[in-house]
Amino acid sequence: MRSKKKKGTRKGFTTGACSAAAARAAMTGLLQGQVPEQIESLLPNGQRVIFPVTDGWVKDATAHAVVIKDAGDDPDCTDKAHLTADVAVIDAAAGDIRIEGGTGVGIITMPGLGLDVGGPAINPVPYRNIIENINEVAASWLKNNALRVTISVPGGEEMAKKTLNDRLGIIGGISILGTTGIVHPYSTAAFRASVVQGIEVAANQRQECVVLTTGGRTEKFTMRQLPNLDSACFVQMGDFLGPALDAAQQHGIKQIIIGGMVGKLSKIAQGEIITHARRNPVNTDLLAQMAAVAGADETVCDEIRQGETARFAGERLEALGLAEAFYQELCRRVVATLEGRYPGIFQYRILMCDFEGEKLVDYHG
Fold it and tell me: What pLDDT, in 10s, does the model give residues 259-279?
């Protein structure tokens, strides 16, 4: 029996923590005339960590420093990103610290994120952490001077294509994130938070419905089916249906459209609202029951019961011309499950596609 590969447990650091460390290193360089090769920086959680610093230089009234992000054992698209800080003396009121986004840091284009539209995608905790680190090394200097801090990420625009930023109305780069400064390996917290944030954006845009999809393929499918909806309505929920619906309820969104394929929808039908494949196997007894409702004989139902996937059930019934009835019954059970958990809260519509992104069912609950 093949053993599962162990996941790493080494923690890493957030883009926010690395940005704050780079800003502190650049500020230290501005004050001392040379950027240090390492810097001790204060994290938002109160810890102090020593970060290596690269590409540091000082010229006239400016300084530059880079901290390369180490995401630990987390599979993060921003791992090894060069979080870059440029500090410059400016003509402004003494003590003023202005934080700006440079190349590779996203720009906010939609309300609802708690950030100014048109401003940089630097979240409030990292923003405060940058200022806190600057103040720790330059409190006396700031009594008579003002400072501009520009955070940039070379290659950030490409990295952002692997995130949900465009769905949240963040364009041109990544977000500077992190509430503690620490990245926990294989944590789902960041994705879950982005799902909730997507719902909040839709609510703040006064959208009346959200389209919850399980991934990129189902999102593209639902967008083709619903061309008149604003892009803010579409939220890739992944496995996090429960948190998405909780957020929708909290923000008063009543119309829920779910875009999915047979596997994830089967998980929902069997009562799961966190639908990760590793949590529980598909209930093949339930699939067999639905096959029977669709008109399959007992022999076929036994085959489905002995199978391992919902896809097998769908393909077996497709061959018998019973697939549409099976998928309709599946959607009916999805709605019944959700209605049992959220009684009278939402109106449901299920858009179901195959593995090529072609429509199978448009079910109105």
Answer: 999 988 998 998 876 554 445
